[in-house]
């Protein structure tokens, strides 16, 4: 509905997306507030079961980043297809200010609250704001990086992200994301005794699972994702060629008449 409206009426579509973003940012705040849910899953004093069932696994509490991505993606596509990228001029002070805010918010999203929100004392405001604002804020930061890099304002970050190694890894990262949770469940449920915690053990587990997920993702991409992409390209190319042939045929008929 949102994307269809956006394609028909851009202004109305952006209004709907912005309204939905606001609504789906308020919803997790309200659910966290009313149920006194923890904001961090490693909080041993919180209701982890309620956190999983009422917040973490629910679409309506995790939807806000999608709307952020839809808005920013539309702006990027609109500038590209309308060939307005060269006309986009940003003041250097504003540009540096946005980059400063974004590069500050990214570590804030990662590290903020890990001490204050894991204590026995329940911070109602802190947990509610964390669950409602963390993910859309992260999405805005990543969206800005994509927007800036696609419009020539990425600088060294665009150069770094354009390295060939990242182009290769980008083919497998989504599969790693999909597969690693299953691997974690398999390892946890196969354990017969509690694990002894140490930094070495955590590092060993992290890199072991990462490498295993990366290896399986290579097979996953080659077996499932790549064939589907090839089939899709073949079908689209045939459809486009048919349209071109039909257009050429109609043009020849018009000339003949």
TrEMBL record:
It comes from the Eukaryota. GO terms for molecular function: acyltransferase activity, transferring groups other than amino-acyl groups. The chain crosses the membrane at residues 12-31, 63-81, 93-113, 133-156, 168-190, 202-224. The keyword Membrane applies. The keyword 4Fe-4S does not apply. Pfam families: Acyl_transf_3. Residues 5-220 form the Acyltransferase domain. Keywords: Membrane, Transmembrane, Transmembrane helix. This is Acyltransferase 3 domain-containing protein.
